[in-house]
Design a protein that fits this description.
4-stranded antiparallel sheet, two-stranded antiparallel ribbon, Outer membrane efflux proteins (OEP), alpha+beta, 484 residues
Length: 484
């Protein structure tokens, strides 16, 4: 097997993970995972989009709450209207008759008119139509806020993947440097002994060595190009200035055995997972909407003030209390009333829809209670597996390096063969690559467990305080406070 395939983790990790290059040079800041995560959370368009949903939910609650307060409706009309004079009493002899100078069936000139009609209503009692929906809207706000934390968890995991991939790339590139150094030493020895016609080397050793060199260069070239793409992607993820650079720590964090058992992480998930918060508040909201739909079957009582202001220069004012002239009259009247809507199936269907949505959410809750522990157990198992793997691969990698050094020493003393060096070199490259990959996979598994258990919510940066400006030449905008 050629060296490129045997190095495996170090080389393939560079290619498939597309881990970015680190930028060197004086004045380039070193950013850790906490800093990069804070930058990404403040910059992420996806997080901002979910925050907009919180604002929308808040305004929906304000809309429902607005039904508690008075509502005013007014209609203004104007146009032309026939002139009209008041009726007159005429006496002919001993008889009195009512004379109407401007009857409706005759036109006696026209003039303009204006009318303002209004009604002011104040709900008094609605059997919960408003209260149930207002409280449901309040629970919807909590659902949306949990959605913000859910999106933050996705962003944090993406940053962790890129961050650990970046460090893996740095260590992987060091592995390439070491491989080239060992191959260079081996080539010098082969050339020197071939010139001396030593029996310890063969001409075919040159071709075998060239095969290893080709494999290393292939993966190094692929990693170089992939690294550039991924480094740019990481900068875009955190909103970093494209014209500036940053570095990350040079070593992957050392694995430690999980301090707590699986039961702890399952309990934490059931308590902190945003999905559980969404289900909890969502169930209450759905039940409230069912109650509100039932309340729609009852009347709503209200206080109202009804009135109008109208005037027409060509019409006389009529003081008769039994006659209301739309074109020339003023007045307002307070009253109480009730509005009761009846139908033959619409309200019943709406109640059924609300109950069906509530039942669906309850089944979703049961599904989550079944699925979340399984997901947590899977991620917890990965942490333990990769911790044990890293411990074992560290031992293998260290001893493979000792084997390689010993093979070179034995060869120099004339008691070893070139085949021993090649074999030790292959195993050293493979174990070093696997060790780096086990470190990467362990740290990534920790990040995934942090997300699946919901524990990351305990470490979210506060939104009311702006993050410290840690990017040279670029100010970090303060986060907006959460909608109330």
């Amino acid at each position: 097997m050629i060296l490129g395939a045997r190095i495996g983790g170090a080389m393939l990790g560079l290619v498939f993970l597309l881990a970015p290059l680190t930028a060197g040079g004086a004045g380039v800041p070193v950013l850790d995972l906490k800093q990069l995560t804070a930058m990404a959370l403040h910059y992420s368009p996806a997080v901002k989009a979910t925050k907009s949903e919180v604002t929308l939910a808040s305004e929906q609650k304000n809309e429902v709450r607005g039904h508690r307060w008075p509502q005013f409706d007014a209609i203004v009309t104007g146009g032309v209207v026939p002139n009209a004079r008041l009726p007159q009493i005429r006496q002919v002899g001993e008889d009195k008759t009512l004379f109407i100078p401007d009857p409706k069936d005759k036109l006696h000139g026209v003039n303009v008119f204006g009318n303002l009609s209004f009604i002011l209503t104040q709900p008094l009692y609605t059997f919960g139509k408003i209260a149930f929906r207002e409280e449901a809207a309040n629970k919807n706000i909590e659902v949306r806020r949990a959605g913000v934390d859910l999106q933050k968890g996705e962003v944090m995991l993406q940053v962790a993947q890129a961050y650990y991939g970046l460090i893996l790339a740095t260590q992987g590139k060091d592995a390439v440097v070491d491989a080239r150094t060992y191959l260079k030493d081996a080539r010098e020895r082969i050339n020197r002994l071939l010139l001396a016609r030593s029996p310890n080397v063969r001409e075919s050793d040159q071709y075998r060595l060239a095969m290893y060199e080709g494999g290393v260069e292939k993966f190094a070239a692929q990693a170089e190009e992939g690294a550039k793409v991924a480094y740019g992607a990481l900068k875009a993820l955190v909103g970093y200035d494209p014209n500036k650079d940053f570095r990350v720590p040079q070593e992957l964090p050392v694995p430690t055995a999980p301090a707590l058992g699986l039961d702890h992480y399952v309990r934490t998930a059931l308590e902190l997972r945003p999905e559980m918060s969404q289900l909890k508040h969502g169930l209450v909201a759905r039940q409230l909407l069912v109650d509100a739909a039932k309340a729609d079957r009852y009347p709503s009582f209200f206080l109202a003030v009804v009135g109008q202001f109208a005037g027409a220069p060509g019409r006389d004012y009529n003081p008769d209390p039994y006659i209301n002239d739309y074109f020339n009259d003023n007045g307002a009247l307070p009253m109480v009333g009730a509005k009761w809507h009846f139908d033959f199936g619409i309200l019943k269907a709406k109640i059924g829809q609300a109950q069906a949505e509530l039942a669906h959410l309850r089944h979703t809750e049961k599904q989550a209670l079944m699925g979340i522990p399984v997901q947590v157990a899977k991620d917890y198992g990965k942490v333990k597996e990769n911790y044990k793997a890293s411990v074992g691969m560290e031992k293998a990698y260290i001893n493979a390096r000792r084997w390689l050094v010993t093979a070179f020493s034995n060869f120099d003393m004339g008691i070893g063969k070139m085949d021993d060096i090649f074999q030790a070199f292959e195993r050293y490259g493979a174990f070093r690559g696997d060790y780096l990959m086990s470190l990467y996979e362990y740290n990534l598994a920790v990040a995934e467990l942090d997300k699946s258990s919901g524990a990351y919510r305990r470490n979210l940066p506060p939104e009311e305080k702006p993050e410290k400006d840690i990017t040279p030449g670029r100010a970090v905008k303060p986060a907006s406070p959460p909608a109330s």
